[in-house]
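Quarterly update from the structural biology core.
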Amino acid sequence: MGTAMKLTIDNDFREICREIVAKGEAAFVDSDDLYQQGNFCGGWDEEHGVFAFSFYAPDGGDYIFSLSVEEARVVAEGGSIDPPLKYWKKAPIW
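Predicted structure, tokenized:
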């Protein structure tokens, strides 16, 4: 079946995480596309209490993953996370 897709933490995603951390509680606006930068699109999922993102991967797939506030803080501070990515659909052509 091949190698599992891994999240690429790039400057775009790190900047999104910095914005989430800087906003604090103001980041918790129920939205699926409040944060859009580079290969990432997502927002706060009120129902599940996490940030939900799409990652438009180099293989052409749209993978979804969730991100906690603490994970956003880790990435914002230069760290790394390895959330499970779930294939959702073929990514839109930009």
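The longest strand covers residues 50-56.
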